[in-house]
Amino acid sequence: MADPSKEGVLQSLRQWGENSVPPTLLATLITAQHMRPFQPLPMVFPPVLLFSSYLNLNDYKTDAAGITAAWSGLYALLAMRRKQQFRNKLTARGAVRGASLALCAVNVVGGGLAYIFGRREKEDTSKK
């Protein structure tokens, strides 16, 4: 493995996209925000994100990265539609919302890089 200090930002983001923890963390943050009071539309996202973590753990890293990037972007679009007053940004709920939107942004970039530059080893070996 290469020296971590010489590793580029793009490679770090790609490794982030190939990791199974970020979609699970995002699913946890979304659940914390929208479970009480229950909001049905945002609660569609956690099962899909947990499924992408499951795919990642079963060695479908490229496909899981694509699913994570797409659904994180969709959630960010949904969450950005809601306007929030400045004083509400300084509460615990506002901090969780900000953290989930920041995580969405990193997931979109990292998952997108992992999906674009990823290889499907199982498909490559079956063609030979």
What report would you give on this structure?
Helices cover 73% and strands 0% of the residues. The protein is mainly alpha-helical. The chain has one domain (9-126). The two termini are 28 Å apart. The model has no long low-confidence stretch (mean pLDDT 88).
Class by alpha and beta content = mainly alpha
Query: Could you give the distance between the termini?
Result: 28 Å
Strand proportion? under 5%
Largest sheet: none
Q: How much helicity do the residues have?
A: over 70%
Number of helices: 7
The low-confidence runs, each spanning 5 or more residues with pLDDT under 50, are none
Order of helices and strands: HHHHHHH
Whole-number mean pLDDT: 88
**For the CA atoms, what is the radius of gyration?**
16 Å
Features:
128 residues, mainly alpha, 7 helices, 0% strand, membrane, transmembrane helix, transmembrane
Compact overview of the structure:
The protein has 128 residues and is mainly alpha-helical. 73% of the residues lie in helices and 0% in strands.
